[in-house]
Design a protein that fits this description.
five-stranded mixed beta sheet; Metallo-beta-lactamase, Chain A; alpha/beta; 197 residues; globular
């Protein structure tokens, strides 16, 4: 995990020799992608895939810095590709609900979770039970904002979907990892979103 500084997402690196990078941060001076990856031992030749939980700049702009030195495929839900696809060219792979992205360590199941954006996704690992929750759910029962291309109604349905999963660890787009009680955290996020609406 590379912790985002300021308005920058966390970056998660799965594997080493054939690394999959989940979200890429904003890629600004405070959050330089390559020095941070190289500190973890990930060099350009090791980057196999990039998966974006959604196309907001604080999660996606670092992808362009990665593409300056490496040639990974970049996975984005089809409903968010309109914001980013013209800049990714042949690297873009569109994903949908239920798709599985293979990594060096575990398969990542794509769970479509609209609300924060129309094409937001979470990535689920069935064993060990890990959820990369993007900006859908955060630690302490917080949930993602909605507005331009999402809605509170969609977000509530997405959180409801996540509460049906078996989750031990939740790794959100911002904030600290939830290393225990992740299912309770998701239920609290759903309850808070329902109260908000």
């Amino acid at each position: 995990m590379i912790v985002g500084d300021g308005l920058c997402s966390n970056i998660y690196v799965v594997g080493g020799d054939r690394a999959t990078i989940i979200d890429t941060g904003v890629g600004n001076r405070l959050n330089p992608v390559w020095p941070q990856l190289e500190e973890l031992g990930v060099k350009p030749g090791n980057v196999d895939k990039v998966v974006l939980t959604h196309a907001h700049h604080d999660h996606a702009m670092g992808a362009f810095l990665i593409l300056e030195k490496a040639t990974p495929q970049v996975y984005v839900h089809s409903k968010d590709t309109k914001y980013i696809s013209s800049s990714l060219g042949d690297a873009l792979i569109k994903v949908e609900e239920g798709d599985v992205i293979e990594t060096e360590l575990w398969p990542l199941e794509v769970i479509w979770t609209p609300g924060h954006t129309e094409g937001g996704v979470c990535l689920y690992v069935r064993e060990p039970r890990i959820l990369f929750s993007g900006d859908t759910a955060f630690p302490d029962g917080y949930f993602g904002r909605f507005g331009d291309s999402g809605s509170i109604e969609d977000l509530i349905e997405s959180l409801r979907k996540l509460t049906r999963l078996k989750v031990d660890v939740m790794l959100a787009g911002h904030g600290v990892p939830v290393l225990q009680g992740a299912e309770d955290n998701l239920k609290l996020a759903l309850r808070n979103a329902e109260l908000y609406s």
